[in-house]
Amino acid sequence: MSDSPLLDWSVAGAPFPGEVESGDGYVVVDRPDGMLVGVIDGLGHGREASKATREAIATLTAHAGDPVTSLVQRCHACLGVTRGVVMTLATWSAVDSTMTWLAVGNVEGMLLRARPGAGRTRESIVPRAGVVGYEIPALRPAAHPVAAGDTLILATDGIAGGFGDGVALEASPREIAEGLLAGYGKRTDDALVLVARYRGRRA
């Protein structure tokens, strides 16, 4: 869908069949040291789910420079009058080539390594049970070093599990996102998948 000096990224999504609005949304925003990327899933589907997600996106965009913990807390404070959301957020630092992520609820996240070497080929986020706007757990972000070509995939629960198996990293983020939606979209809920590939540290 788009790119920046730091990330090449794309999104594919679809609303619950019969609905006009999707409760799934995303944010990709520049911040002073890099970028903020996130996927938000309003509880349920339809207009009220979409309303909660839009409120979260507005808050995240307005405060994109904050740490991920503060961003979740800000959303929690402003979403109490909505049905709430689950979300996974990731901040990418152009200063030290790291990605820091945090999940509340069941937006799945994985980081696929372009050149794993002796290390792991995949990092998976550890979600914490909760609903932003209703009850959130202790927030424990995790940081990972990243290298050019490493690819983040975030997906709502409208995407069936196991979607990360066999992802071809030679494909573009757009091709990956559209392929995952077509191959793993459940059609029983809103569905959204975001793919972001790290270009490397800014010059």
Biggest β-sheet: strands ordered side by side in the sheet: 1-2-11-10-7-8
Helix content: 10-25%
Strand content: 25-35%
Task: Supply the number of helical segments.
Answer: 3
What is the CATH class name?
Alpha Beta
Sheet having the most strands: 6 strands, antiparallel
Please, how many domains? 1
The fold-level CATH name is Phosphatase 2c, domain 1
Record keyword descriptors for this entry.
203 residues, alpha+beta, Phosphatase 2c, domain 1, six-stranded antiparallel beta sheet, 11 strands, globular
Written overview of the protein:
The protein starts with a strand and ends in a 5-residue tail after the last strand. Strand 1 and strand 2 form a beta hairpin. 19% of the residues lie in helices and 33% in strands. The strands form 2 sheets. A 6-stranded antiparallel sheet has the order 1-2-11-10-7-8. A 5-stranded antiparallel sheet has the order 3-4-5-6-9. It has a single domain, classed as Phosphatase 2c, domain 1, CATH 3.60.40.10. The chain has 3 helices and 11 strands. It has 203 residues and is α+β, with helices and mostly antiparallel strands.
Write the layout of secondary structure elements.
Blueprint: E1 2-3, E2 7-14, E3 24-31, E4 34-42, H1 47-62, H2 68-78, E5 85-93, E6 98-104, E7 108-112, E8 122-124, E9 142-145, E10 151-155, H3 173-184, E11 191-198
Antiparallel strand pairs: 1-2, 2-11, 3-4, 4-5, 5-6, 6-9, 7-8, 7-10, 10-11
